[in-house]
Amino acid sequence: MRPQQIPDSRATRISAVVLDEHGSVGVRDLELAPPGPGEVRVRIAAAGVCHSDLHVLTGAWRIPRPVVLGHEGSGVVTALGDGVDELEIGDHVVLSWVPGCGGCRSCRAGRPAQCALVATVVAPGGVLYDGTTRLSEAGSSVHHYLGVSSFAEEAVVPVSGAIKIRKDAPLEDIAIIGCAIATGVGAVRNTAAVRPESTVAVIGCGGVGLACVQAARLAGASRVVAVDVVAGKLELATALGATDTVNAAASDAVAALRSIEPDGYDYVFDAIGKISTTEQAIAALGLGGAAVIVGLPAQGERARFDPLALAEADQRILGCNYGSSIPHRDIPALVDEVMAGRLDLASMISARRPLSDAAAALADLAAGHALRQLLIPGHAANRRVSATG
User: What pLDDT band is residue 10 in, cutting at 50, 70 and 90?
Assistant: First the structure.
């Protein structure tokens, strides 16, 4: 049964990228109802294309359909629901795909990335807090993705999912802060708390992995080894702070990592989330090291490790959801770092494309030909920035 869609004569007509019940992706004309209590409407400036969107497309993650994809983005507030006083019309915002409710046990404990309402209602149901959707097509409801649905001209989101940022920041570039940067930088700073002079390896140099590389550099790691199968991504990782690289298409990743650091690593970040890369991250650890699982695998996957060896070496396996972030604290601070030149986002954006290119952008991502691609509402033609293949 589809969730209820609240009818409203003030609904706005928008174009949005819909994944339908048959697995097709395309731009459709939808109705977007006004924001309800505690919600805001945002005109989307840019939306990042992430592997999480790809997981939904392939069915690796089971999300109700039809659904408007996209969970990473930025924009400008255009309407306020009742009771919203944190934001004003015209504010620039970065969207957060974990819009913490503020009242559950995790939110009260200062862990909004583990919000129970998001985990049990918003994410699995494809709805907002109240269990309904603001999206519809010809009277039939359409689902939200992770409370965001940024592959659209406009979106209605909970106010906690719209993080106010400074207005002088480039709205397109900072779209990727809402997922890739917050996750990768947060994994290094919040989840692992990487120490100066540590040895670090990052497996996977997509958007999240490159954010891990940059954060490890900023943390003062003495060695940052980037691992990927695409030479162009390794070259970019070097430009962003990696001291060494491993091409996993040409050699065994663990053996190559051990040839660089025979005693293993203090921290290994799996920024891909495949079972093979998770097992590689654990195998590359040194004494007292921590494997941080940042990339998210398909539902139901199981990895193997030797628990005795883990215990004897005093090693840890750390799960990392959204970089253990507190979005209202971390996202504005990350924007400040971008503006100060400490974090490089522009180099990580490989293409800027119109909404109509969504299916092609997802295909390029699946083939490993792209880093972070941006979908820009209103663009009529593909604007590529750089290639990684």
Answer: confident
Cβ–Cβ under 8 Å, residues 152 and 146 = no
Q: What percent of the chain has pLDDT over 70?
A: 95
Say how far apart CA 367 and CA 364 lie, in whole Å.
5
Pairing label, strands 223-228, 154-158? unpaired
Largest CA distance in the chain: 66
d(CA 157, CA 344): 28
Indicate the DSSP class of residue 15. E
In degrees and rounded to multiples of 5, residue 308 shows phi and psi of -65, -45
**C-alpha–C-alpha distance, residues 323 and 185, integer Å:** 7
Radius of gyration of the chain (CA): 20
pTM of the full predicted structure? 0.94
* Residue that wins the pLDDT comparison between 190 and 369: 190
Residue type, 261: E
| Residue 91, pLDDT above cutoff 80 | yes
Q: Are strands 67-68 and 12-19 parallel, antiparallel or unpaired?
A: antiparallel
Nearest CA to 226 out of 211, 209, 207 is that of 209
Tens digits of residue pLDDT in 202-236: 999 999 999 999 999 999 999 999 999 999 999 99
Classify residue 169 as left (phi > 0), alpha (psi -120 to 50) or beta. Answer: beta
Alpha-carbon distance of 228 to 383, in angstroms, equals 25
Rounded to an integer, what distance in angstroms lies between the CA atom of residue 44 and that of residue 389? 29
State which H helix or E strand residue 282 sits in: helix 275-283
Three-class secondary structure of residue 57 per DSSP: helix
β-partners of residue 290 are 267, 316
Q: Which DSSP state fits 143? A: B
What the block records as the tokens of 243 is: 């001291």
pLDDT in tens, 37-52: 999 999 999 999 999 9
Residue 299: closest CA among 59, 72, 123: 59
